[in-house]
Design the sequence.
């Protein structure tokens, strides 16, 4: 496979090249478009690609750089956004088949901030039906596949965002996360990402636990994106202020490059047993323990954090989401209900006959998840854990387990931080014996987004792991192309 160097540049390298006149945004866009042409027939990361619109944006950016009037740190940088983030005039199907796909009539806050900063939005990325699967399986899009190995899942629900990041469709890709949907693609694709503190990145449709954030190849690019998309917007009534250089808990300033991050004196938790759901695979546990050893060797006090959730709480969280999806399902016309992925139909029907009292019990369980998570992690500056109990599974499976109807047993490490509103970053931590990627989750106290990004950047720099290699486009096993 040929390597298109401009498509693989970081955001900082791109803008430095623009400023120096070494290349311009049009050349970068052409490189990214060539990469998309090469990979899309296999990985299926994009649900909407508007070359004319992105070409015009890149041309305008090139002129600004020529005139010395760049708009900001992302001017001319190619980005993608998940299909559930509104972009005026662009289809917004939320991953499922429709009789007539709805088209957004406005720009979401994220879209506005990116375009105000001059970013070139090259496309919208795929997701599974309603974002309720941890894979790239969709009734509308088919299957989104890993660029590292097309036989394997991307993870989800930010499936296309993860695939686009791993394939090199530019440096920055915006996803969303209500229980792990940014971090799961990151662990199964060897990426960096951030599920920010709740409200840190404004949304035009905020919802309990839902956050939006970046997926990228490095934590530095995650931070580049956060500097732009975290700008306040009053449409989000849960919004937080823009990230401050000093954290609200009084911890020192720590830039994303990691140079000022120092684990010495920090108390760091090592969390290897979620207390609920699937058991952690021994290879995954070993890689995460080795990552914690790196923090300890640099002077941190690392202590085991025991399990703090249980299967009953996990089942109640799952049931709460089933009721929400059942409400969405029954609101559709009958002919469109039939188009929803059968796996999702069956899963959502588990919420069909839930009483108001039972739903309130589930809501109270969510508050208990929040209470336990905050209480368990309060004594630590950071907590290190797996993202998921297992490595990537076959791309055709909607979930890590093939049997439909089971509670989501793979989100015991990720979902708690959505409900507690705490930030959680992911970086590549290592590989299984068969070369599947394993991500390290680094969580922090609420509002400590800076700290978890800095810790992730520090780990990337000190671990210096080899980045995963893209598979050659077209080299898909015969069973997949049949």
Sequence:
């Amino acid at each position: 496979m040929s390597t298109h160097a401009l498509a693989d540049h970081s955001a900082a390298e791109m803008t430095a090249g623009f400023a120096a006149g070494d290349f311009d945004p049009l050349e970068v866009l052409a490189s990214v478009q060539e990469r998309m042409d090469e990979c899309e027939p296999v990985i299926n990361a994009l649900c909407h690609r508007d070359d004319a619109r992105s070409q015009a944006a890149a041309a305008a950016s090139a002129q600004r750089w020529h005139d010395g009037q760049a708009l900001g740190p992302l001017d001319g940088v190619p980005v993608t956004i998940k299909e559930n983030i509104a972009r005026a005039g662009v289809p917004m199907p939320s991953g499922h088949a429709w009789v007539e796909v709805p088209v957004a009539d406005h720009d979401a806050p994220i879209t506005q901030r990116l375009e105000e900063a001059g970013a070139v939005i090259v496309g919208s990325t795929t997701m599974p039906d309603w974002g309720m699967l941890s894979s790239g399986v969709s009734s509308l899009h088919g299957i989104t596949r890993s660029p590292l190995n097309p036989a394997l899942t991307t993870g989800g629900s930010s499936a296309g965002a993860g695939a686009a990041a791993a394939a090199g469709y530019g440096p920055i890709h915006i996803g969303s996360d209500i229980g792990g949907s940014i971090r799961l693609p990151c662990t199964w694709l060897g990426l960096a990402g951030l599920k920010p503190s709740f409200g840190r990145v404004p949304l035009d449709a905020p919802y309990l636990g839902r956050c939006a954030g970046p997926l990228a190849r490095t934590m530095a690019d995650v931070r580049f994106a956060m500097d732009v998309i975290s700008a306040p917007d009053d449409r989000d009534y849960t919004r937080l202020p823009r990230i401050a250089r000093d954290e609200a808990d009084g911890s020192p300033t720590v830039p994303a490059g990691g140079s000022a991050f120092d684990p010495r004196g920090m108390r760091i938790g090592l969390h290897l047993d979620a207390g609920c759901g699937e058991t952690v695979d021994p290879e995954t546990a070993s890689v995460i323990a080795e990552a914690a050893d790196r923090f300890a060797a640099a002077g941190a006090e690392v202590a085991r954090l025991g399990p703090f959730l249980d299967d009953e709480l996990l089942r109640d969280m799952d049931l709460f989401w089933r009721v929400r999806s059942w409400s969405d399902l029954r609101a559709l016309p009958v002919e469109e209900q039939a188009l929803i992925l059968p796996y999702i139909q069956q899963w959502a029907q588990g919420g069909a006959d839930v009483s108001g009292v039972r739903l309130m019990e589930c809501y109270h369980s969510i508050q208990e998840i929040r209470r336990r998570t905050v209480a368990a992690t309060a004594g630590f500056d950071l907590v290190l854990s797996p993202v998921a109990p297992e490595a990537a599974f076959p791309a055709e499976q909607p979930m890590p387990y093939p049997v439909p109807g089971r509670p989501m047993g793979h989100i015991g490490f990720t979902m708690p931080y959505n409900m507690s509103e705490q930030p959680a970053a992911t970086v590549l931590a290592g590989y299984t014996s068969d070369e599947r990627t394993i991500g390290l989750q680094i969580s922090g106290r609420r509002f400590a987004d800076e700290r978890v990004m800095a810790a992730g950047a520090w780990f990337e720099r000190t671990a210096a792991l080899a980045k995963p290699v893209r598979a050659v486009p077209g080299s898909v096993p015969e069973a997949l192309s049949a």
